[in-house]
Amino acid sequence: MTDTTPDLPPDTPVAVKEPSRFSVAWQSDFAWKFRRSPVALVSFSVVVLLVLAALFAPLIAPYDPFNPASLNLMNGFSAPMTPNAFTGDTFWLGTDDQGRDVFSTILYGMRISLFVGFAAVLFAMTLGVTLGLIAGYVGGWVETIIMRVADVQLTFPAILVAMLIFGIAKGITPVEYRDQMAIWVLILAIGLSDWVQFARVVRGATLVEKNKEYVQAARLIGRGSGAIMLRHILPNVLSPVLVIATISLALAIIAEATLSFLGVGAPPTQPSLGTLIRIGQGFLFSGEWWILFFPAVTLLVLALSVNLLGDWLRDALNPRLR
User: Fold this and answer.
1) Which residues face 154 on adjacent strands?
2) Helices (H), the chain
3) Nearest Cα to 314, choosing from 28, 37, 23?
4) In whole angstroms, what is the distance from residue 322 CA to residue 315 CA?
5) Distance set, CA 51 to CA 46, 54, 101 (Å)
6) What pLDDT sits at residue 162?
């Protein structure tokens, strides 16, 4: 068979296809570590699966557990995968005392837990990073006040600080708006109890970065303090912040569950996983174990997966381990 390919001069340039940004990112050192870590792959997959299940709960859940019109009290205390003695209906994870499908309540409850966790961490991160940047860059009495407040708060357990803030905020909220504002008050309480670690880490990193040459050059060309902190220092201190935020997400979810279990968190009209565990705890010793067991296992898997992912991020972004 004759080769019809024309002979090209040696100096003829050959077009080379540029790799896509996704291809470059996937071949990076960080992506390589991610692909080679079974813990990271499994924990990330579980977190994504649970988050998607919570986001699409109205489409996935077979019942709307918080619509009174769809409830049938005759379905109460149905065991998992067992036909109800009165109605003959079968539920995957059983039902609670009001006939609500436990699987559906977990999906809807996970939405509240994840929303509170993400919002509280975002609030704590924003507050802590801002105060840490100011304390590290400005210094003087401003740094002293911010760090002493942080030191005082560290002497108390975070859950007690959250309970105190929640009680004060709920007390000053009008009675008719308490149930409507309960979720936002919960976010405020957890966020204000968790900003300290962000501020301490950012303040330490800022003290190192502000003496480097690029910051000195920014001062020489007339950049203001705010611009230097936001455009020059902040991008260089974000790596540890992202790690802390991932680990704090698991702690925020557990804090929300703890507060809701104690009865000072999410209202009964918007139950989270902690509220479902509190409800199920009342029926544990009467034989209806599934009302407590399945929400508790879901909370455990969610918090453990986020925590393992945060631990892997800490190791992967640690320059000493590269």
Assistant:
1) none
2) 21-26, 29-35, 38-55, 57-60, 102-138, 140-154, 158-172, 178-192, 196-209, 213-220, 225-228, 238-261, 273-281, 290-316
3) 37
4) 9
5) 9, 5, 20
6) 87
Q: Are 246 and 313 in contact (CB under 8 A)?
A: yes
- Concatenating the DSSP letter of every residue in 68-106 gives GGG--GGGTTPPTT---TTT----SS-B-TT--BHHHHH
pLDDT (tens digit, 9 = 90+) per residue, 157-209?
888 888 888 888 878 888 777 777 888 888 989 999 899 999 999 999 999 88
Q: What is the per-residue pLDDT for 6?
A: 54
What value does the mean pLDDT of the chain take?
84
Domains annotated on the chain, with CATH: 54-65+91-321 (1.10.3720.10)
Q: How far apart, in Å, are the Cα atoms of 93 and each of 63, 85, 98, 105, 293?
A: 12, 16, 14, 10, 10
| Confidence band of 11 (pLDDT split at 50, 70, 90) | low
The rounded distance, in Å, linking the Cα atoms of 236 and 191 is 24
Query: pLDDT tens, 79-95?
Result: 898 888 788 888 889 88
237 is written with which tokens?
A: 């201190």
Give the residue from 61, 112, 321, 50 showing the smallest Cα distance to 42.
50
| Selection from 149, 190, 150 nearest residue 166 by Cα | 190
